[in-house]
Amino acid sequence: MNIYIYIIRRLAYLIPVLLGVCLIIFLLFNVVAGDPTAVLLGKHPTAKQMAELRHELGIDKPMVYQYLDIVKSAFTFDFGRSWATKQQISSMLKRGALPSLTVSVPAFVLATILAISISLLVAYFRGKFIDKAVVFVCVMLMSISSLVYILFGQWALAYHLGVFEIAGYDEGFPNFIPYVLLPILIWVVISVGPDVRFYRTVMLDEIYQDYVRTARAKGVGEKMILFKHVLKNAMIPIVTFVIIRIPFLILGALLIESFFSIPGLGGITLKAINNNDFPVIKAMTVLSAVAYMVFSVVTDVVYTVVDPRVRLK
Amino acid sequence: MRMFHLLVLCLCILGGSIGCKKSDDGLKVYNIASTSEVKGMDPIYAGDLYSSEEVGRVYEGLLEYHYLKRPYILVPNLAQEMPQVSRDGLTYTFKIKKGVLFQDNECFQNSKGRELVAEDFVYSLKRLADPKLQSLGWWLLDGRIAGLNEWRDKHANLDVVNYDEVVEGIKTIDSHTVQFKLVKPYPQFLYALAMPFTFVVAKEAVEYYKKEFLNHPVGTGPFQLSVFTQSNTIVYFKNPTFRDKFFPSDVDFTLANSELSKDAGKKLPLVDKIVVNIMIESQPRWLVFQKGDLDYISIPKDNFDTAVTPNKELAPDLLAKGIRLEITPQLDVTYIAFNHDLPIFKNVRLRRALSLAYDVNKSNTLFYNDTALPAQSVVPPGIAGHIPNFVNGFRGPDIELAKKELQEAGYPDGKGLPEITYDITASTVSMQMADFFKARMAEVGVNIKVRTNSWPELENRIQNRTVMMWGIAWGADYPDAENFLQLLYGANKTPGPNGSGYSNPEFDLMYKEASVMQDSPERTAIYENMNKLIASEMPWIFGVHRQQFSLKQSWLKNFIPSDFTTGRCQYVNIDKSEKENLVKSKF
Amino acid sequence: MDNVAVLDGELIIDEGPKSKSLWRHAFDTLLKDKVAVISFIVVSIYALLAILTATGMLAADWAKEVGSSYSPPSAEHIFGTDIFGRSVLAKALVGTKIAMSIGIVTATISVVIGVFLGAIAGYFGGKTDEVIVWFYTTFSSVPDIMLLIAITLILGKGLFAVYLALGLTSWVTVCRLVRGEVIRHKDREYVQAASAIGGSHFRRLFIHILPNIGHIMIINFTLLFQTAIKSEVILAYLGLSVQDAPSWGKMIDDSKLELARGVWWQLVAATLFMFGIVLAFNLVGDAVRDALDPKLKGK
């Protein structure tokens, strides 16, 4: 099948999935979640005012219309204004995206480079003590809750030793740098364990392939094999693994952002959830769903382009 | 090697630009922290502490609280003088100051702020009542002003709200006189005119910025907004066209802090710039203050032990930096409410028993570092209606008496009582408080099931009456006991502020009588009687009246603790040289 | 939530149907693996602690005040006391019971849902497959946090809601893997043979195919088990965890306020307890995978 037709078909599949996402949003938050009006009206709400506000927000419309409203905003990307802050959601998202990215992108890049390097090392020493030790350390790192890393890191490194800023954020380069160092470090520590384990498995998969055996039989050096052949072929699963996680970077890390007072999208999401701020919840859900799906299409396309063994289905 | 040089260069640039803090060219800067995100700066939505504080820097109202005098008294702000009130107490006539200008802004002709006129107040109050805008301050005017409810109801179903239609109760007499006609006596009306909800806005700005008006405040106030990033920083500069307003000199400064006299009679505002840092987490706020980058903060609960000695004095290391401790009683009350719709809680002995079983002193120690005042009834100290030295006989902890009351209530050792759900909001501290409550109730055999909620969920449970008991607090809107007593007035049942649904004919009668009375010894006597009645009825388990412990740097001058902090920023002063010297030597 | 790397079904290399001897072989391999044996013992100890706590033989009076507020670790209370003077050790033990139950129930829920939907989709193919694939694609596109919160909104809060919330948000991976495996297996000779002798769909699917993908279930079960325990901490942070009992997550969440005043023991106790079981389960999972996954056999 032609690759372009494949891409178009995959992208067209976005539509039914997005409709499904809208249905989930609708069911979960419209039918189930409570009425936001009492909270939005502050300390002295009256029954009449609540009814008026319900009308104003459109939550007294028939269910079908409410669902269609969600679908409409999901396809037009026009999410209107936040209920709680009355701010334009698009500008809230624009403001929040940058702080999130200043933490997540460097952290992700660093963690990926570090994890691939370590996994190359352990692939070279596979089966030896160093391999076992590294794997064990990774498993140990994975056995501690991410919340503990955040709490302890903030307390010990920032508060006690004063090496890093405790929390906060400043806009613009390079003002933000001191504030993102510790969040990045914590992110790297949290993700390096699972990453190394994954990349190691990928590399070992390659090492035991026939072509490696052939190369070795031909007298190619072990280092050469590792860098030239194994790494090259392992890049396929590695790249796909990396791409599929990109949409999660946009959303940022909920916990890290709230503990380090980084005014990113994670914090916006958390606040919206606490306030029943439905339009913002809707916007964040739709956006992350679309990002997730677009990137999974990209992953598949990259996969099929670079690996001739995979047939288009 | 070249790589290395490049790296060094990069680091230098980086370090250099981090090191150089934005210089302020000799301006007096007031640095403060806001503990919550600021939603926007439209007066009619200034329902929370944080946005009303910000609104109060840019906007002003007819009246304000005297900055120095206590108990709180109202003085004219944009009004020329206190209003003339008709003999029946229904008509209020305000003369407004002449020559007051709105801040320069592109929404005006030639970007020059025009003069404030009486019509602006009519417009601003109608905006508060606009059915399409869902203001948070409508309750202040609801059913109070002649013709306003009719105007609101009429426009609720129309597409466009017509501000030109005259409302009988809000009229201009001439360009600088505005007159309000009330439907019935409303002694709290003047307080309403000092609240940010009623602050005056310019029609031009509202129409020019439309929905973005909340991010573009244009008022008559002492400061002008410069930068507004919602979740980060807000910066204001002194308003160059601010009218001649002076620091009060009509108090006896020998009695008050003599330092205040230095600025008496000086033109306001006293600082040139305000920087508000949004810092939601307490830990960073505390550390930034200690570096001298914030001029005052309230002490976070968990830093209390390091900042304050057991004698409620400041820790020596902070004292050495010149930092001072300010203790402000807050006009508030925390309480655990009963749902009075449920038959079991109609039993006053049961309510008393539960209150007696609750250890308010220990909870004060655990959760407020012993700084709060155990509440004896509903009205906090500092306002008329509070009875000093009054002790409520049904306050805990008294397990023996609690058990006795429980027996007389018909539930010996808690037998026969269903499991009682206790609803709270899901914060770590309130969960700990709930654990504490549950343990205390277990001591008398009452079984509590704790249920956590988001704030909207809890509100909905109260609205739908699917609650049994829940923990909550109330802070004053204005310094009048009525604002607290209304929480128990029968007609204010949900969705009104009487969430517990308590109703007592005797109490309601007194409330009705007092609510139309002007401040007087007779009214105070009624308030006190109501307070006493409530103390024996125990419609809630009373918690505490909290006190705010705040720290201020020595270079911050004229900082007076207050419950109504709107507009305070124009009175404070910064001693720049003192700050520079201290920071250099001690920080 | 933690990112769990699981190889996609397509990457797994074709192998023949697994015979009984594979399981026997795997069991023998496991017994020889010292780390695996120790980890098994650790898991058993936790299970025992959980059972003893559940039956009230241990830490039944965890809510009792045994000392003053925030007393540091001592010989009497090795993990000190909390804000109310309750023993942190007793709370951690109750937490063990809760964590173990969360692990078992959550992992069971998601394996059952995942295997059921995945098997049906893979086996029947066509429209059924399309609907199920659409369903899990949609489901996995919605961020977990939203689903978690929505589910607890529906069910109210408590242990039951935690089980379901975590179970219902983690079945997609299993479903995907099982679907892939079933597709590969259904045209095999042994399945064809079964259909030739007149086996029903049900029989073919559940008697012939599923036992051959048992290793996927076991491997994923160990993974889901420990992920669920870690996820409970996040739920606790969001205020969505169990209500009337201490959990490790709630203890860790409490300590965010306590660290500043130098109270570290609650954080340490909960972290240590959690570390033990999650580490053991991770190692068991690795060992089981090495033993069962034919791809790595003999390497």
Topology:
The complex is a heterotrimer of chains A (313), B (587) and C (299).
Chain A: H1 3-12, H2 14-32, H3 37-40, H4 47-57, H5 63-76, H6 89-124, H7 129-142, H8 146-160, H9 177-207, H10 210-217, H11 222-251, H12 254-259, H13 265-274, H14 278-306
Chain B: H1 2-19, E1 29-34, H2 49-58, E2 63-65, E3 74-76, E4 84-85, E5 91-95, H3 118-129, H4 148-156, E6 170-174, E7 177-181, H5 189-192, H6 203-209, E8 223-228, E9 233-238, E10 273-278, H7 282-290, E11 296-298, H8 304-307, H9 316-320, E12 324-329, E13 332-338, H10 348-357, H11 360-368, E14 373-374, H12 399-408, E15 420-425, H13 428-443, E16 448-453, H14 455-464, E17 469-475, H15 482-485, H16 505-515, H17 521-537, E18 540-542, E19 544-545, E20 547-552, E21 556-557, E22 573-574, H18 576-586
Parallel strand pairs in B: 1-10, 15-16, 15-17
Antiparallel strand pairs in B: 2-3, 4-5, 5-7, 6-7, 8-9, 9-10, 11-20, 12-20, 13-17, 13-18, 14-19, 21-22
Helix pairs in contact in B: 10-12, 16-17
Chain C: H1 20-32, H2 34-54, H3 88-124, H4 126-141, H5 144-155, H6 159-168, H7 172-186, H8 189-196, H9 201-209, H10 214-237, H11 248-258, H12 265-292
In words, what does this structure look like?
The complex is a heterotrimer of chains A (about 325), B (about 575) and C (about 300). By secondary structure, chain A is mainly α. Chain A folds into 2 domains: about 5-75, no CATH class; about 90-305, Orthogonal Bundle (MetI-like fold). Chain A has helices spanning about 5-10, 15-30, 35-40, 45-55, 65-75, 90-125, 130-140, 145-160, 175-205, 210-215, 220-250, 255-260, 265-275, 280-305. Chain A starts with a helix and ends in a 7-residue tail after the last helix. Chain B has 2 domains: about 1-240, Dipeptide-binding Protein, Domain 1 (Dipeptide-binding Protein, domain 1), CATH 3.90.76; about 330-545, Roll (Dipeptide-binding Protein, domain 3), CATH 3.10.105. Chain B has helices at about 1-20, 50-60, 120-130, 150-155, 190, 205-210, 280-290, 305, 315-320, 350-355, 360-370, 400-410, 430-445, 455-465, 480-485, 505-515, 520-535, 575-585, and strands at about 30-35, 65, 75, 85, 90-95, 170-175, 175-180, 225-230, 235-240, 275-280, 295-300, 325-330, 330-340, 375, 420-425, 450-455, 470-475, 540, 545, 545-550, 555, 575. In chain B, helix 10 runs antiparallel to helix 12 and helix 16 (about 505-515) packs antiparallel against helix 17 (about 520-535). Chain C is mainly alpha-helical and about 300 residues long. Chain C has helices spanning about 20-30, 35-55, 90-125, 125-140, 145-155, 160-170, 170-185, 190-195, 200-210, 215-235, 250-260, 265-290. The model of chain C is unreliable at about 1-20 (pLDDT under 50). Chains A and C meet through helix 2, helix 7, helix 8, helix 9 and helix 11 of A and helix 4, helix 5, helix 10, helix 11 and helix 12 of C.
